[in-house]
Every structure is written in structure tokens, then in C-alpha cells.
Design a protein that fits this description.
The protein is of the alpha+beta class. About 25% of the residues lie in helices and about 30% in strands. Strand 29 and strand 30 form a beta hairpin. The longest helix is centred in the last third of the chain and has 19 residues.
Length: about 800
């Protein structure tokens, strides 16, 4: 934000130089990006008056003028500007003047001849002295401009313009009021607020307002102002402050709204009252509705934008820009002046959506004082009435106090200040600092009870208040001291174990990916499954394709797979660790640390030996690499996955000790087709569960000195029976000495009865303390055969 130093000093004028003032603001968290004068360096330009203006004898577009610059001798100057005329007060560059550089070189004024007529200087347009041209021709000075005075002094062009970087949380500082308030607090000086009084209405004219969305617009004020004298010019002091703050001047009505915006921080908008048809309505846009803006850009609204409308349609994009249909022109004499409070979330991202960036949207997105609209309306109305003699009508106010922002008291424990800042401040000094910041504060001996003001949206917790105390007390006044080191001998191995999981996948040929936690709503919709939970939409997404929080990390990984495939990388192996988010609102949001993996293409780099594509069992091998090496294999099992986004016959849940750790398998072909992907293998697991499993099996145990015993059993079962169903029962029946178990053969053929198949299991038994006896092994085998027969009708095969 750019603001005139002189304007700030009208509010509060500390005995500091410009550099010192800029340093104060920077150290208070309002960083000074730069400071320049209103106009670049030039000299020898004074106020003059055109005494005569005659046609040049040899050039149709040139005029020969005589100009009084107060020296007692008039100058003859040839000028080609279309607006030169007798009686005009102008900026005169005398012989010897040095104007701002052109193409990097100073422009020196010399005596010369134009078409044979001597010229003793130059009449200047705005751009020739480093200002912005507002008309085609000379810079026209007010009629009361004193002749002979240096133009730099008269226009205040030596005044400094501060370019201040306002952080997103300090929307209250986007005004002369906000910055001056900070300066007054830092320097313990009173704030010289302008006297703002309400103008008593002189007419009963008013406008009817209907607010249909008071959540987005909890306060809306509109005042009818009529019979405005449009010949009235903006006062010099008003134009000076606007120009000195790098804002262009237009006509008086526009200048007034811009002035109040810069002065108080409240955006205003003026509608041509004669162009409004019916009542003013504040509502959400209709999908597909169009609006031509003041910049002549026609936009098509999507339906979630807040608009100001009448009976015909939209008049303005609320809080961002007005529309052309109700725009104020030089012929406008009756206006409706709007001053409103819009919810930040109702404005955020809407301007960016249409490629707009306005002073109003910049402020509303960061938060504007909800108590400011009436004050700003009084200020603008008083200025319009004073300059133009307009008739002031009634104010229409529509508000819902329950929907306005809540400023709840904050409790700040006294001890917390020293804890966070490392310096002990007297309680009375803390109270003084906070009260000067307009934070009403009381101290009860243990804590400070603080009531933030309406303009401080960023104050919600005790730490916010400590930050304010540090800013105003001064960071330079806080002496460094060594922190107290409380040694904690406990060791959190979470990071190390997570790294081990990553190394396991890296050893299997996977590369780590890091992506946003946001995802494309279209991709997220492909993963619709009640088991995943609901999607959390973002109120202010950074882009349209990052509009929701991801429920699964696949929403982030699959676009990366597409990116690589489109660049001739046919074999892709990726994994990512991060949070998945489930829930439709913040209060009920469940965030789960997860590990996801995705793979496609050949099982190995292309070679002469193995050119086959990856399959389910290759993925299963990679998944099992995540499990600890010392895991008792009898605790590991798989269940058929029932997730809608996975292939029903090529997916499974990973189960350890009866608990599901995650899922893996082939991405459902319909989803792969929708994303233009080939066969893709995916998986996702809860990191905390994997880490807990590693912790539980990390104990080092000596290998048994006693031999293991292997026994194989084959069972004849119905073809509809899943071998996985046998695993749980075998483990339960085999007893505590079973250390490993696996299926090694499945047979179906002519030798077996129709509808039957043979399942052969290998079982490994071992006792860590003694050699297993034959009767122990036999009993275990008998128990297994009996249990499978009773539960599944399985018959033991002899051959």
C-alpha cells in the first residue's frame, strides 16, 4: 500500500525523520518496501499564467503565448497543447530547467525557435514533470495558484510516499487511519482524528434495500443524495492526498469514494440513482448471469458470487467492482451511496476468478472493521454536501447483528508473556500497551482480560496479544537470554521408523513424491465410497483444480502418474506420506497420517529376461516389504477388499493380528479409463499402525537352538471356499508352536470330484525352549484337520 507521509503526519506527527518513521513501522510488523517522492527530481518549474494566446503564423497546431511567471517580465513560449488558452494557470519550465529524464538522460530546457518564432521555455503537461496525465494537454492548475511559486512546493511533490507491505492479517492498516493509529501507539502520541459529523437529511428521498443473504452481507447501508452540482471540482487538499498516495484522480464523486477508502479503509460505491430500476437487492448471482463491469469486462457468474442487483439484474459484483449499467458519469446528479460490511469468505477468491484486483476486494478479503460503514458514509456524505451543495436523503440500514463478526474476550495469563518473550514486563506496562492499541484490558492479578476492538480480526488467542505486546514494547528492547534446557531422555522413534518404511519402498524401486493436500474435486468424486467418508471443500481454493481436501493420497498421486506417462515414462513407481482428510466441516475433520503407493508398467526395467507387466502378487510383495522382518507370519492375513474404487477381484485388505492396516490392489478399470490411465496398482496404509507394528516386533530375540518341524496337509473343499478363510482356523487350532504358515498348492482337475478343489498348506512348528515331541505335532495336526472339517466340511486328502 502506498500512502503519503504528509497525510499520515496530519493524523499524528512524531519528531522523527522519514527514515526513522519508516524504521518504526518496519519494526512494528509493517515493513517499508520503499520510500520515494511524489514526483522524480526536476528543477526550474514555476507556476505561471497565460496572458495571451495567438495562432502561430506558420503552424496550424502551434500557439504563441505570453506567460507571466511573476518576475516582472513576461515570457514568450510556443506551445502545441490543445487546451492552452488565455487565463490558464500552468506549470512553466523556464530556460535552464532540468526535467525528469527521458530515455535515461536529463531533459534540459533551452531557449530556441519553433517554426521561426522564439520560445523562452516550455509549458508542461503532467507527464513532463513525472506525474500521470489525466487529460490530453497541459497540466491545468487551480485559478488561485500563486504565480511564480515553485511547482514542487505548490503541489507538494517533495512529499514522501511510503510503500508499505501489509501482511494478510493486518487488514486494519490498509488506510491512513490504520497506519496513523500504529504510529500514535508506538510514539505515545494522541491521534488527531478528523471531525466526522452526520449531515441532517434535507429530503425524504430514500432507496429500498432487500438483503437476501445476510450471512455474506450482515450490514448494508445506502443513502440517497440528489441535485449534485457536477461542475464542482475536487478540492486541492483532497487531490493532493490522492496524488501523493499514487492514486489517480477522476471526477469529484469518484475522488470522494477513493479518498474515504484511503482515509478510513472502508470501500464505498456510488450508483447512478436514476439508472436503478426498483429496489436494491443483495443476493447470490444466478448461474450463467452476466455483468458488464466498470472496466468494460463482461463476466459470466457461476452462482456463488455476491452481487448487488435491482429488478433488472446485477448492478455490481459486491465488494469488488461496480457495473457499467449503473455507473456514475459526468451527467449524474443523483446517486445512491453504498457502504456495507461483507463477510471475508463471500469476497475471497472471487476477484481472482475473473482476473480482477481492486482496492475494495483487497480490503474486504482481509477484513474491514464492521463498525466502520456508518462512519465512512457520514464522511463521504459530508464531503459531497460541502463541495457540491447536494441534498442529502435518508439512510437505509439493513443489518443482522447476529451475523456480524464476534469479538470475544481473550484471557492472557501473566506468566505466558515472560514464557514466550523471555522478558518480564510490569503488569501496568502491559495494560498500558494493550489499552493504547484500543484493546480494553483489565488485570486481576493472575491474568489479563482483554476485549479486542472491532477492527482487529486477527486477535483470537492469547498468543496474538503477546505478539502485540512484543511489537509495541520493541523487539530491540528484548534482550537475548539463553533458554532453559530441560533434558528429556525419552526418544520418539516415529521419524526414524517412517524413514525405514520409505527406504523399504525405495529399495523396491519406488520414488517419493511430495504433493499438495488439496485435490481436484473431479478426481475426488471418482473415489466416491461411503467407507472413505465425506469430502471437505475449501472456502478459498488457490486454484479450481485444488478445491477440496484429499480423502486418499491417490487423489494427489494419480495426476503425477499421468504427468509422467505423458512424458514417455511408461514404468512409474511412486509413494507418498502425508495426511488424508475426511469430514465435511472443520469441527468433525479426521486427519490420518497415511502412506500411499502407486505403480504401473513392467514389473522390472525392460530387459531380455523379464518383460511381463506387474500383477497383483508383485504389488503384494512390495506391500509386505513394509512389514517388519521379525513379524510372526501367522499373524498376517488378507481379506477381499470391498472398496468401490478398487477392482473387486484384484484387491485386498492387509490384516495383522485381526486389524486392518490398509488396502491395496488394482485401481478400478472405470476410474483408470476416466483418467486415461493403463492398469494401475495402488495401496494406502495407516502409518501409525505400521509404526506400532514395527515397535512391537523390534525386540531382539535369539534364534532357537532346537530344530523346526514342517508338516503339509492337503484338503478337499468346495470350489466356492476361499483359502484365506482357512488361515484363521489353522492358526487357532495349531497351537502356540506354529511359527509360519503358507498355501503352496491349489489343484482342480479330472482326478477330483466336480465342484471340488484341493488346497495344500505348509505349517512350520518350533519350540524355542525344547525339541518338539511327535505327539505334540500329531495333536496339532489332528486339531487342524478336525476344525477345518467341522467348520468348512474339508476332507483330508491322503494322496
Amino acid at each position: 500500500m502506498k500512502i503519503s507521509e504528509n497525510w499520515l503526519r496530519q493524523w499524528v506527527n512524531p519528531a522523527n525523520t522519514s527514515d526513522e518513521l519508516g524504521q518504526q513501522l518496519t519494526m512494528a510488523g509493517l515493513e517499508l518496501d520503499g520510500a520515494d517522492t511524489v514526483a522524480p527530481e526536476f528543477s526550474g518549474v514555476v507556476v505561471g499564467e497565460v496572458i495571451t494566446c495567438e495562432q502561430h503564423p506558420d503552424a496550424d497546431r502551434l500557439r504563441v503565448t505570453t506567460v507571466n511567471i511573476g518576475t516582472g517580465e513576461n515570457l514568450q513560449i510556443v506551445c502545441g497543447a490543445p487546451n492552452v488558452r488565455t487565463g490558464l494557470k500552468v506549470a512553466v519550465a523556464t530556460v535552464g530547467a532540468v526535467l525528469p529524464p527521458i530515455d535515461g538522460k536529463p531533459f534540459n530546457i533551452k531557449k530556441g525557435k519553433l517554426r521561426g518564432i522564439e520560445s523562452q521555455g516550455m509549458l508542461c503537461g503532467a507527464s513532463e514533470i513525472g506525474l500521470v496525465d489525466e487529460i490530453d494537454g497541459l497540466l491545468e492548475l487551480p485559478d488561485d495558484a500563486p504565480i511564480g511559486v515553485d511547482v514542487r512546493d505548490y503541489l507538494g511533490l517533495d512529499a514522501m510516499i511510503f510503500d508499505i507491505a501489509i501482511t494478510p492479517n493486518r487488514g486494519d492498516c490498509f488506510s491512513a487511519l490504520g497506519l496513523a493509529r500504529e504510529i500514535s501507539v508506538i510514539n505515545r502520541l494522541p491521534l488527531n482524528r478528523p471531525e466526522i459529523t452526520a449531515i441532517t437529511p434535507s429530503t425524504d428521498k430514500k432507496v429500498n434495500v432487500n438483503v437476501l443473504n445476510d450471512e455474506a452481507c450482515p450490514r448494508y447501508l445506502a443513502q440517497y443524495i440528489s441535485n449534485i452540482d457536477r461542475t464542482a471540482k475536487s478540492p486541492k487538499w483532497l487531490v493532493g492526498n490522492l496524488v501523493a498516495s499514487s492514486m489517480r484522480t477522476h471526477n469529484f464523486l469518484v475522488d470522494v469514494t477513493n479518498y474515504v477508502l484511503l482515509e478510513l479503509g472502508q470501500p464505498l460505491h456510488a450508483f447512478d440513482a436514476d439508472k436503478i430500476q426498483g429496489d436494491i437487492v443483495v443476493r447470490l448471482a444466478n448461474q450463467g448471469e452476466t455483468l458488464e463491469l466498470l472496466n468494460e469486462q463482461t463476466i459470466t457468474l457461476t452462482g456463488d458470487e455476491l452481487v448487488i442487483a435491482d429488478d433488472v439484474g446485477a448492478l455490481a459484483l459486491a465488494g469488488i467492482m461496480g457495473g457499467m449499467r449503473s455507473s456514475v458519469t459526468d451527467e449524474t446528479t443523483n446517486i445512491v451511496l453504498e457502504s456495507a460490511h461483507f463477510n471475508q469468505l463471500a469476497i475471497a477468491a472471487r476477484a481472482r476468478r475473473f482476473g480482477l484486483h481492486t482496492d475494495a476486494s483487497q480490503r474486504f478479503e482481509r477484513g474491514v472493521d464492521f463498525e466502520l460503514p456508518l462512519t465512512a458514509l457520514h464522511r463521504a456524505t459530508a464531503l459531497i454536501h460541502a463541495v457540491t451543495g447536494a441534498e442529502v436523503g435518508q439512510i437505509t440500514t439493513v443489518e443482522n447483528l447476529d451475523k456480524l463478526p464476534k469479538r470475544n474476550p481473550i484471557h492472557l495469563p501473566y506468566a505466558k508473556i515472560e514464557q514466550l518473550l523471555g522478558v518480564a514486563l510490569p503488569s501496568d506496562e502491559v495494560v498500558d500497551i494493550l489499552n493504547r492499541l484500543e484493546i480494553t484490558t483489565q488485570f486481576d492479578g493472575d491474568k489479563f482480560i482483554c476485549q479486542p476492538p472491532s477492527h482487529r480480526f486477527d486477535m483470537n488467542i492469547a498468543e496474538d496479544l503477546v505478539e502485540e505486546i512484543a511489537r509495541i514494547y520493541g523487539y530491540d528492547n528484548i534482550r537475548p537470554r539463553l533458554p532453559e534446557f530441560a533434558v528429556d531422555m525419552s526418544y520418539d522413534d516415529t521419524a526414524d521408523l517412517t524413514h525405514e518404511l520409505k527406504l523399504s519402498l525405495a529399495a523396491s524401486g519406488y520414488f517419493e513424491a511430495v504433493s499438495f493436500s488439496f485435490s481436484d474435486a473431479k478426481i475426488e468424486a471418482l473415489f466416491n465410497d461411503d467407507k472413505l467418508g465425506s469430502v471437505l471443500p475449501l472456502a478459498n481454493p488457490i486454484s479450481a483444480d485444488l478445491a477440496v481436501m484429499r480423502r486418499t493420497l491417490l487423489s494427489s498421486l494419480l495426476p503425477v502418474v499421468s504427468y509422467n506417462l505423458n512424458r514417455q515414462q511408461s514404468r512409474v513407481r511412486l509413494f507418498e506420506t502425508g495426511l488424508s482428510f475426511v469430514g465435511q466441516d472443520i469441527d468433525n475433520l479426521v486427519q490420518t497420517p497415511s502412506l500411499a503407493m502407486v505403480a504401473t508398467g513392467l514389473v522390472a526395467e525392460e530387459g531380455i529376461y523379464d518383460k511381463r507387466a506387474m500383477d497383483f502378487f508383485d504389488l503384494k510383495r512390495d506391500v509386505e516389504s513394509l512389514l517388519p522382518q521379525g513379524l510372526n507370519k501367522t499373524s498376517l492375513s488378507y481379506e477381499r477388499a470391498d472398496l468401490a474404487f478398487l477392482h473387486p477381484g484384484q484387491s485386498a485388505y492387509l490384516v495383522v493380528n485381526g486389524a486392518r492396516l490398509g488396502w491395496f490392489g488394482q485401481l478400478h478399470p472405470t476410474i483408470a479409463k476416466a483418467l486415461d490411465l493403463p492398469t494401475v496398482w495402488v495401496g494406502q496404509f495407516a502409518i501409525e499402525d505400521l509404526i506400532d507394528l514395527h515397535r512391537a516386533t523390534n525386540a531382539i530375540t535369539a534364534p532357537s537352538k532346537f530344530p523346526s518341524v514342517r508338516r503339509d496337509l492337503a484338503f478337499l473343499v468346495d470350489t466356492s471356499v476361499e483359502w484365506q478363510d482357512f488361515i484363521v482356523d489353522i492358526r487357532a487350532a495349531a497351537g502356540k508352536y506354529l511359527t509360519d504358515l503358507w498355501l503352496f498348492d491349489v489343484y482342480q482337475g479330472d482326478r477330483l470330484p466336480e465342484g471340488k478343489k484341493s488346497l495344500a498348506f505348509a505349517m512350520l512348528f518350533q519350540n524355542a525352549d525344547a525339541t518338539l515331541e511327535d505327539d505334540v505335532i500329531k495333536k496339532a495336526m489332528d486339531d487342524v484337520a478336525s476344525r477345518l472339517s467341522d467348520k468348512h466340511g474339508a476332507k483330508l486328502r491322503d494322496s
